[in-house]
Design brief:
With 246 residues, this protein is of the alpha/beta class. The chain contains nine helices and six strands. Helix 5 crosses helix 6. It starts with a helix and ends with a helix. The structure holds zinc ion (2 copies).
Length: 246
C-alpha cells in the first residue's frame, strides 16, 4: 500500500527545494512549514490599531477623548460612524499595493480577517447591505480592490453585497496631493445612486481613508437617498489625523 501522506510530504519538501518561495513584502526566504506568501514578521506588521479614535468619523487620535474630534464638532459627516482596522503604513501599505496592483490574492485572507475583526469590534447595528466605494468608470483593469474587499467581508459576515448601488459617473484626478477644499470640489457630483436605498441601513466600504472626503461624499449620496450609513475601511493614513483643527 502506498503511503499517500508520506508521498505528499516528500513532494512538498521537494517543491520547497526546487521552488523556494520568498516573502512577497521583504523578500526573505519563507519557512515553508508555516509561512505562505508573507513571512511571520511581515504578517505581524499587519496589526490592528489599538489607540483611541473619534467615536464618529473614526480618525485615530493621539489621546483618548470621549467626545467627537474637532472636525466632527464643526462639520459632522452624514454617516453615523466610521471605523478603520489599521494605520496605513509599513507592511500594510506594501501588502495593499501587492493586492491592488498585482492581484496578489495571497494577502486577501489577512485583509478579510482584519475587516471581519473591525466589523465585529465596531458594535454597529445589523446592516441591509455592504456598498463598496466605486472605482473610476474609465479604469481599464478588471480588478476592483474595494469590490474584492467588500466580497470578502460579505462572504464572512453574511451581509448582502450591494455592489452596484453606487456608481462613479466621471473620472476624477487622484485625491492625493489636493488641498481639502479642492478634494471636495474634485468629487462634487462624481457619485450617483443606482437603486432604491430608502429605509435601508448600509455599510459603506473603502480600502484606505486619506482625508475622509470620499467617504463623506459617498455617505452624502446614500443618505440623501434615504438610507442610514455607517462606514468601514481597512486602513487610514496619518493625514487623516493632520486635518484635525488645532
Ligand atoms: Zn517578510
Ligand atoms: Zn471625528
Amino acid at each position: 500500500m502506498t503511503d499517500v501522506k508520506g508521498e505528499r510530504h516528500f513532494l512538498h519538501a521537494l517543491e520547497a527545494v526546487l521552488f523556494p518561495s520568498r516573502c512577497q513584502i521583504c523578500g526573505c526566504w519563507l519557512d515553508l512549514a508555516g509561512e505562505r506568501v508573507l513571512c511571520k514578521e511581515c504578517a505581524a506588521g499587519l496589526a490592528p490599531w489599538r489607540g483611541p479614535r473619534c467615536p464618529i468619523c473614526g480618525i485615530f487620535l493621539p489621546t483618548p477623548d470621549p467626545s467627537r474630534c474637532g472636525r466632527c464638532a464643526v462639520q459632522p459627516p452624514s454617516f453615523r460612524a466610521h471605523r478603520s482596522w489599521a494605520s496605513y503604513g509599513g507592511a500594510l501599505r506594501r501588502a495593499l499595493h501587492l493586492f491592488k496592483y498585482h492581484d496578489l490574492d495571497g494577502v486577501a485572507p489577512l485583509f478579510q480577517a482584519g475587516l471581519v475583526q473591525i466589523w465585529y469590534e465596531s458594535g454597529f447595528p445589523p446592516m441591509d447591505g455592504i456598498v463598496p466605494v466605486p472605482a473610476d468608470p474609465t479604469r481599464h483593469r478588471d480588478f476592483s480592490p474595494t469590490l474584492r474587499l467588500a466580497e470578502l467581508l460579505a462572504r464572512e459576515t453574511g451581509i448582502p453585497l450591494w455592489g452596484n448601488v453606487l456608481k462613479k459617473k466621471r473620472t476624477t484626478p487622484p485625491q492625493a496631493g489636493l488641498s481639502q477644499a479642492r478634494r471636495l470640489t474634485n468629487l462634487k457630483g462624481a457619485f450617483t445612486l443606482r437603486g432604491a436605498v430608502a429605509g435601508k441601513r448600509l455599510l459603506l466600504l473603502d480600502d484606505v481613508m486619506t482625508t475622509g472626503t470620499t467617504l463623506r461624499t459617498c455617505g452624502d449620496v446614500l443618505t440623501r437617498g434615504g438610507s442610514e450609513v455607517f462606514a468601514l475601511t481597512l486602513a487610514q493614513t496619518p493625514l487623516a489625523r493632520s486635518l484635525e483643527p488645532s
